[in-house]
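Sample pair:
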Amino acid sequence: MEWLYQKYKGLLFSLAYQMIGSATDAEDIVQDVFVKAHQIQLEQMTDPKAYLCKMTTNRCLDLLKSARKKRELYTGPWLPEPIHTPVHDSAESVVQKDLLSYAMLVLLEQLSETERAVFVLREALGFDYHEIAHLIGKSEANCRKIISRAKNKIGITATDEHALFAPEESIEEQWISRFIDALEHGKMDTLLGMLAKDAVLLSDGGGKVSAAIHPIVSAERIAHFLLGIMRKTVLPLGLQVEPLPLNNQIGLLLRLGEQINTVVLLHVEENAISRLFFIRNPDKLQSLYEHRKHE
C-alpha cells in the first residue's frame, strides 16, 4: 500500500485542494482516504487510481456541502488558502502542472459542488469524460453539459483557456518587481498605470484580523488603498515584503520577523492587474508558517 501512497498522494492532494480551496482540509482528506484504502485488499481495487480519486471526490463533495453555509456567513470575502509551490517538485509538493491559477480557484466559488468537481477533474487534471462520469456517478453527456454550464457561469470561453493556469515566471517577476517598487516609493502614477480601470481587490481576514469587508473596485481606489496601507502599517511596523512561489506564480509575503502578516497574489490580464487577493486570515497562513519553519 505504501507504493500507492507515494504514487498517488500528489494527484489526490491536487484534486482535493482545488475542489475545496483549503490545503489543510485537503491533506486531512488524503490521509483519511489512504487510511480507508489500507483496510481494503489490493485485489479488490481493479483500478487503484480511479478508486482513490472516487473516494477523494466523494469526501470533497460532502465537505463542500457542509461548508457552503459557513462560507455564506463568512465575514468578508472568502479566499482559497494559498499553497507553497517551489520550483523543484519535492515529494511533498502538489502536482504543479495540474494546478489552476489562484484567480481561477477564486472563480470556482461560484460553482455548485458537482460543477466544481467536473471542472477540476476535466480542466485541471485532464480526466476524460468517461472517467469523470464514473467518478461522480453521472453520464458522459451530462458531464459535458455540466462543464459547459460551469464555464458559462465563470465566463470562460475557448479563447480564455490560457487564463486557467498561472503565467510564465518571467512575466510574473517583471510585474512583481514593478509593483513592489511602486509601493515602496509611493509611485501613484506607476500603480495607476499597472492597474486595470475596473480592477478589483479582495481581502480575506475571516473576521479575525482587519481587512476590507467589501471588494475595492477601480484602479484609483485600489491605488489609494495600497499606498495608505504602506504608509499606515507596512512602513511604520517594519514589515518585510518578499516574493515567494505560491500557487505556481510569484506571490508576496508580508511578515514581521517570522510571523506572516499577509499574502498577496496578483492576476494580470490584458497587460494590466485585474485582480488583487489579500489573504490575511491567520488560519489560512498557518501552513505557510509551518513550511517556513522547516525550511
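Strands lie at 195-204, 216-217, 240-246, 249-256, 259-269, 272-279.
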